[in-house]
Amino acid sequence: MARTGRPAAALRRAEELGAFVETYAEPGIPAAVKDLIDVAGQPVRNGTPGLGHRIAGTDAPVWARLRAAGYAAVARTTVPELAWSGRTPGCGNPWDPSRDAGGSSGGSAVAVATGATVVALGTDTGGSIRIPAALCGVAGLRPTHDTLDLRGITPVTPSMDTVGPIAATAADCLRLHGLLGGAIEPVPALADLTVGLPVHLWAGKCDPEVVRLVEEAAATLRAAGVKIVEVDLPLAARHARTAGYTTMLFESARQWWAEYQRDPSGLAGRAAGLLRAGSEVSVPDYERARELAAAIRAEVDAVFGDVGALLLPTVPVTAARLDEETVELGGRAEDVENAYYRLTALASVGGHPALTVPAGLSAAGLPVGAQLVGPRRQEATLCALGTVIEDGPAARELALARRNLQDETVRTQP
Predict the structure, then answer these.
(1) What residues contact 287, with CB distance under 8 A and at least 6 apart?
(2) How far apart, in whole angstroms, are the C-alpha atoms of residue 341 and residue 205?
(3) 5-412 has which CATH code?
(4) How far is the C-alpha of 61 from the C-alpha of 177, rounded, in Å?
(5) Per-domain residue ranges for the chain?
(6) What angle do CA 39, 43, 44 make, to 5 degrees?
(7) Which one of 3, 212, 240, 309 is CB 3.0 to 4.6 Å from 374, fit for a cystine?
């Protein structure tokens, strides 16, 4: 089937940016699927040279639900090895190809940002839907842990893994969440909602442009009748990243270390070192990490007794350059991966749902995401709040710029 018109130009642009492992000519509503998720008859490569490769015999249940709703898997998206990175090697950002698309669902975010597909399926363990969606200027939803079917999806860290949508808007994400089998609970009136700002999580450790746009998002919510208050999460501030990282190392090694030892050629990048590090995490250290995760979840749940959601930056910086290993935060150099993960760990460790929506553009024209974290199964409330943020002036400017970017692709593609 020949590719013609606007979708074809967008697909070519996404391919140029390194978003796809493979594309397919399938009739239906165009969707992209992360290369961890089974689509019947398609290979699953997990971003590796060989580890965990398979040909899917059947659809993963979440994809089967989208297929039944009329969606077609027209692209399998690029992913770092075993999804073990907040960056997607070889995948450029549509807003500036010299910059990072984020990860590990980087190809999925690029597919939506370029207009190549109307939706993409991603997975989120430590932030892998939210990070690339924020850096690429689209919306992404991490559902409540353990509520959507993960069969037919390569496991990374079972106690934290989720699957969810990346789309243009919060409303699209919610509709897709329902199609994937997620619960859609009633949403309170905006005037009855309070949103908490855990400012101490990012104070002094966040790009001023990101802070400005998240503050504008809070102002937009306030103008719509939502009450805004500051909240404290001291345990999460101290331990969320460490608890999550230790858990990911240990559980990933339990999944993959033995197979890697049988055939070390199955990995070629940093994932091998991470599996090795995970194999050295002791059971007591892992158990301590899980105890901390439970305590953090309890701390956040207690705050949810007073507020309906938390608002914070998704990523504390804009997209790093592809060749950058560190970014500056608070006057100090920080590893890009660590910086990207700094604010997504909260929801991942606690198992809470989290949504990122475009908050606006930095002075350099790069997208910034606002993150909403909520109580279990309150994805609908998060998406309602996200829709309000999307209607703010800075977010509308980003949406227009994204449309112009897609139009430019059509004009310049052969």
Answers:
(1) none
(2) 13
(3) 3.90.1300.10
(4) 13
(5) 5-412
(6) 80
(7) 309
